Amino acid sequence: MELLKERILKDGIVIMPDILKVDSFLNHQIDPTLYRQIAQEFKTRFKDTKITKILTIEASGIGIALATAFEFDDAPVVFAKKGTAKTTSTHYYSSKVHSFTKGIDYDAIVSKKYLDKDDNILIIDDFLANGQAVLGLVDIVKQAGANIAGVGIVVEKGFQTGRQLIEEKGYRVESLAVVEAFRDGAVILK
Ligand code: 5GP
């Protein structure tokens, strides 16, 4: 997606060896025009699929998922909350996730009320690194007995393992921009 790639090259900032900060347009301040175009691009990529629900994870995924939902006939958005699941709770699906950016483990939690076995779910997230957030969401959808139509990612870091791990499980991954490498603080896109 050209507009997104231009924006990453113009305003993305490489911090640490392998983290891209896109706070000025995606993750902190939000550019609504860009979000609309991201959503339209997801619709183009998944146009032949009837999506009944969009699943993401708080916080950065929510706005992207909501914009995308407008393109998919207002399919409801469900976002996994990050917390500590009480293992005794029968009201929630939960899955343990290792956070790439924070280096800690948390539970992704979704109320059983909001996922149905008849759902055809599009998983959306802002970044794909080692795939742990998406795999947590996949696990939750499987617990609900629902179907996964595919995974939509805004920025994939192609040098990390996420895509391979998700594709190995048989799911389709669509990324709107793929980072090939960070070199001397610069972003190299595919
Ligand atoms: P994964 O679970 O695929 O290892 O990492 C994806 C999650 O970590 C995303 O939900 C995103 O919030 C965060 N993340 C991973 N890499 C980056 C990055 O380079 N920049 C930002 N802003 N977030 C990232």
Automatic annotation (TrEMBL):
SUPFAM superfamilies: PRTase-like (SSF53271). It catalyses: XMP + diphosphate = xanthine + 5-phospho-alpha-D-ribose 1-diphosphate. InterPro entries: PRTase-like, PRTase_dom, Pur/Pyrimidine_PRTase, Xanthine_PRibTrfase. Xanthine binds at L20, N27, K157. Keywords: Cytoplasm, Glycosyltransferase, Purine salvage, Transferase. One of its GO terms (cellular component) is cytoplasm. Transmembrane segments: none annotated. Pathway: Purine metabolism; XMP biosynthesis via salvage pathway; XMP from xanthine: step 1/1. 5-phospho-alpha-D-ribose 1-diphosphate binds at A129, N130, G131, Q132, A133. GO terms for molecular function: xanthine phosphoribosyltransferase activity. One of its GO terms (biological process) is XMP salvage. Its EC number is 2.4.2.22. It is found in: Cytoplasm. Its main location: cytoplasm. It is an enzyme of class 2 (transferase). Residues 38-164 form the Phosphoribosyltransferase domain. It holds the Pfam family Pribosyltran. HAMAP family: XPRTase. Converts the preformed base xanthine, a product of nucleic acid breakdown, to xanthosine 5'-monophosphate (XMP), so it can be reused for RNA or DNA synthesis. Belongs to the purine/pyrimidine phosphoribosyltransferase family. Xpt subfamily. Homodimer. This is Xanthine phosphoribosyltransferase. The gene is xpt.
